[in-house]
Write a structure and sequence with these properties.
Largest sheet: 9 strands, mixed
CATH architecture of the largest domain: Alpha-Beta Horseshoe
Strand order of the largest sheet: 9-10-8-7-6-5-4-1-13
Bound molecules: iron/sulfur cluster
Low-confidence stretches: none
Strand content: 15-25%
Number of strands: 19
Structural class: alpha/beta
Helix content: 25-40%
Shape: globular
CATH class of the largest domain: Alpha Beta
CATH superfamily of the largest domain: tm_1862 like domain
Length: 463
């Protein structure tokens, strides 16, 4: 068997993160507005009858300054005058959906998840947030087990923001931290102190937020084992409930802001993985448990409980504690998912606003999933959430799956997975040593990627 350093080199190739399947560059069958609404309605009826409810994702694109590692859809501006008009466009978009639901006599929508992401949702003033949230929830029923969550930047989040959000029912707060090292912070243009983060965390706890998440990144320019250890030590002192410890995705051809440093400033594949392993070890010593890819939680947090119960889900926001469908995306660049179709809104702010104001759903592109997509989507989701998947070769089968076992051989040989055939049942299990290569293993189940190798580099490297 090859050494792990050789394996890291061998498998460190461009690959998707699988927040969806098919992945966005392979979307090819755009739904019409009527097809998208039909998909949402089908999913809504099912979720109403099972009591699972509906999820809303709302994208707030504004940020006051650009963090140079950022991969999100943002509009950088210190001029806050656009924010109120944007809130009103979001509410108009939601009205367009509700009109469609009313036309189909679907009057009761049970909302179980509401997530505000960005950009920087706390770029909005507390008053603008209140207008937005009360407008969104005024016409829906709120499920008993609802989860309202928000991403926030500790540099611009005030006690007034958190007080308003707590009063509106928000229980989960996710703070962008990334790294505490001064040199790294200066390079990525995001300076914030441990004290700033502690203040926001303490206020959230005092106001009754049940889960505080920190986003961290490994693989940033000038990170070293020592600097990452210091960041993790600070995080352990602050003790959030959840941590997303993402690998930095270097895609300067898509995000030109990343050209403000060079590839030689970044830790290499081996070094980058060592940063993750160090962080994982320290976090586990401090009582955090590893979940899926790049996520950690305390055993008291709902993400860990759903992991134990086998209910973990993964969507465009990363890991969530259970699957809620449909997911309706509002706002510029937001992506909706009704399981049988995806739809993404206009990515350009002015185009998004123009279309909503003209009374159209502002869908830019999407994908209607084929039968094969639906089968493979389930397997990739299984691997991403529970490191194993299985199929009956006589049921829920698609011919592409016949090609997978031979492709798995290299991973079996490298000691990364176990694969078994019993009667008509096939099972693929990822071993502990294979977890670093989760994205590579999912790629074997990706029929689109296997049929059409991208001509240009679309994805960041897997390690
Ligand atoms: S990382 Fe967050 S705060 Fe920084 S530019 Fe991106 S979205 Fe804005």
């Amino acid at each position: 068997m090859t050494t792990s350093s050789e394996l890291l080199k061998k498998y460190n190739i461009p690959g998707p993160r699988y927040t969806s399947y098919p992945t966005v560059p392979y979307w090819e069958k755009n739904p019409t507005e009527a097809e998208w609404i039909a998909g949402i309605l089908g999913s809504l009826k099912k979720s109403n009858s099972t009591g699972v409810g509906t999820a809303l994702y709302v994208h707030i694109p504004f940020c006051e300054s650009l963090c140079t590692y950022c991969g999100c859809n943002t509009r950088i501006t210190r001029n806050h005058s656009h924010a109120t008009a944007y809130v009103s466009t979001l509410l108009k978009e939601w009205d367009l959906y509700r009109k469609h639901f009313n036309q189909h006599l679907l009057n009761d929508i049970f909302l179980s998840e509401l997530h505000l992401g960005g950009g920087t949702p706390t770029y909005l003033t507390p008053g603008e947030l209140e207008t937005l949230i009360t407008g969104l929830v005024s016409s829906v029923k709120i499920s008993n087990s609802f989860e309202f969550s928000i991403e926030a930047d500790p540099r611009v989040t005030t006690r007034e923001h958190l007080t308003t959000l707590a009063r509106l029912g928000f229980k989960r707060l996710s703070l962008g931290i990334q790294d505490f090292d001064p040199k790294v912070q200066e390079t990525v243009h995001r300076t914030q102190t441990e004290d700033q983060v502690r203040t926001v965390t303490d206020i959230a706890r005092e106001l009754g937020f049940e889960s505080v998440n920190y986003d961290l990144i490994y693989g940033l320019p000038f990170q070293t084992l020592k600097s990452v250890e210091q960041t993790i030590n600070a995080v352990c002192r602050l003790r959030p409930d959840r941590i997303a410890f993402y690998g930095y995705a270097h895609v300067p051809w898509i995000k030109p802001g990343q050209r403000r440093f060079t590839e030689s400033d970044l830790p290499s594949g081996d070094e980058k993985r060592a940063l993750y392993e160090l962080g994982r070890t320290r976090l586990e010593e401090a009582g955090f448990r590893e979940i899926g890819m790049d996520h950690f939680a305390l055993e008291t947090d709902s993400l860990w409980r759903s992991n134990v119960a086998g209910e973990l889900h993964r969507n465009f926001m990363g890991y969530t504690s259970h699957q809620v469908s449909p997911l309706i995306g509002l706002g510029v660049s937001s992506i909706g998912d009704c399981w049988t179709a995806f739809a993404q809104n206009e990515k350009h702010l002015e185009s998004y606003i123009r279309r909503v104001e003209a009374g159209e759903l502002p869908i830019l592109r999407g994908h209607l999933l084929s039968k094969e997509d639906l089968v493979l989507r389930r397997h990739i989701l299984n691997l991403m959430t529970r490191f194993s998947t299985e199929w009956d070769t006589t049921q829920e089968f698609t011919p592409f799956l016949e090609t997978v076992p031979s492709k798995l051989q290299a991973f079996i040989h490298d000691g990364l997975i176990e694969f078994e055939f019993t009667g008509t049942m096939a099972q693929c299990r990822i071993k502990q040593a294979g977890r670093a290569f989760l994205r590579n293993i999912c790629m074997l189940f990706d029929a689109h990627l296997n049929r059409q190798t991208p001509k240009t580099q679309l994805f960041s490297k897997t390690i």
